[in-house]
Amino acid sequence: MAKVLYSATASLDGYIAGPGGDMSWLSDHLGGDNPTAERLLNSVGAILAGNGTFGGDDPNRGTDSEGAFGGQYHGPVFVLTHRPPAEPPADVTFVGDLHTAVAQAKEAAGDRYVNILGANVAKQCIEAGLLDEVLMFFAPVLLGDGVRMFDHPGGTKVRLESLPGETEHWYRVVYRARVPMG
């Protein structure tokens, strides 16, 4: 059965996008050998993104590397939104409900990962108890402002535990240990 994974690249100060969703900062930090990223790409069976992420900035726009995972991902894409486009792309499914979107993405992914793209959808999945794992890559830059990798003021602390054998920041979400912050 598919697992739901939130993966992203963040600045060292915890931002996955600059102000206004700007992703241009990421261009300087893409490429090169990354066995974990390659293993992840080969393990993704479906993508679930928020509408802002789906229609947002792409550091590779207009190049052969445009799209998820530097244009290397080719598979089912689901977009969580209450405002689907009048003429949606043929290869993208727009869904208005989180639980339905996750269920459809998991079915499409089979025994592979549903990869969450976008901090807002990841936050909704955590709140709903639907997120299984988190994988963060960190780029050597401080952005100072933008979209946080996880932002939930007044929310709950979510315990994570390292996955055995992983050297990157790849964790299992432990829901039974959720504790109010403060």
UniProtKB/TrEMBL annotation:
Residues forming the Bacterial bifunctional deaminase-reductase C-terminal domain are 3-161
Which InterPro entries does the entry mention? DHFR-like_dom_sf (IPR024072), RibDG_C (IPR002734), Riboflavin_Biosynth_HTPR (IPR050765)
Show the GO MF annotations. Answer: 5-amino-6-(5-phosphoribosylamino)uracil reductase activity
**SUPFAM superfamilies under this entry?**
Dihydrofolate reductase-like
One GO biological process term is:
riboflavin biosynthetic process
Q: Which Gene3D superfamilies match?
A: Dihydrofolate Reductase, subunit A
Protein name (Swiss-Prot/TrEMBL): Dihydrofolate reductase
| Biological source species | Micromonospora saelicesensis
Q: What is the lineage of its organism?
A: Bacteria, Bacillati, Actinomycetota, Actinomycetes, Micromonosporales
